[in-house]
Amino acid sequence: MAYLPEEATPDRANDVKGFPPSYFERLHRALNLVRPRCQALDLGTGRGEIARGLAQHGASVIAIDSNSGLLDQARAVETPENAGVRYADASAEQTGLDDESLDLVIAGQSWHAFDADAVALEAHRVLRPRCHLVIAHYAWQSLPRNVVEATEDLIVQIDPDWRTGGTNGLYSEWYPRVRAAGFGEHQTFLHDVDVVFNHEGWRAYVGRRLAESFAQSDCKKLDDMLAEELVKRFAGDYLVAPHRAFSYIAQKN
Fold it and tell me: 146 φ, ψ to 5°?
């Protein structure tokens, strides 16, 4: 089912489309990982998107990040869910939390930024027995002749060394380090959704995704090329871009 930006749980300051509400609903209803009075820790919370999604389903959330500027933005979000989140400046590798004090540890869009060995051990330490670590990543999916494929082709024209595109949204490299930290009962699930954009919204979305790794001049060049490509290949002002949330779940024995 397709959803629109205002139906997502976005970073309101930048209108970034994030994990859809249906993803948190699945964690809550289908997997029973998020429930009232659940004590949860969001690692590398950024602007708090994951934390607020958990809080919406009754979890009491500690959301940590080492970037104080992002934490300030997260605290400033005016939603009822934010009342259930306690933001703290801390590292994922050394949270400072008590042993076996949590029911859920989750890292959404952040695991790649950590020392995976250290964070897996820290998650194991703070989780209660039979509780869970969730690692999730959410990204667009390139399929034949869709707008994502067309966009990635243009990106490669600008930077032939760009290697971020063309993935299937599966991340097997998470498993060995989490298992080595002492976790068992490993499972994964895919949550695929269609995300709706107009032309302007898609160009802005692509620009934000590339702003941190591309020079401003290259971003401008890409935007000009993309605007022309959208008019030529995708008539009207309605685009559907498939996105995938891949989640890896491990239980502490």
Answer: -95, 175
CA dihedral 9→48→32→1, nearest 10 degrees, is 20
Cα separation, 152 vs 149, whole angstroms: 5
Instruction: Please tell me what DSSP assigns to residue 47.
Output: T
Alpha-carbon span 57 to 110, nearest angstrom: 21
The pLDDT, as a whole number, for residue 144 is: 93
The domain segmentation of the chain, as residue ranges, is: 2-141+168-194+243-252
- Residue 4 pLDDT exceeds 50: no
Three-state DSSP at 2 gives strand
Residue 9 has phi, psi (to 5 degrees) of -115, 75
By the 8 A CB rule, do 41 and 126 touch?
A: yes
Question: Which of 13, 23, 142 has the alpha carbon at shortest distance from 75?
Answer: 13
Please determine, for residue 156, whether its predicted confidence score (pLDDT) is greater than 50.
yes
Could you report the per-residue pLDDT of 94-119, keeping only the tens digit for each?
A: 999 999 999 999 999 999 999 999 99
Amino acid at 143: L
SS3 string, 118-163, reads: HHHHHHHHHEEEEEEEEEEEEEECCCCCCHHHHHHHHHHHHCCCCC
Residues 216-244: pLDDT tens digits? 999 999 999 999 999 999 988 899 999 99
Which CATH number is associated with domain 2-141+168-194+243-252? 3.40.50.150
Distance CA 123, CA 137 (A): 18
The CA distance from 148 to 63, in Å, is 32
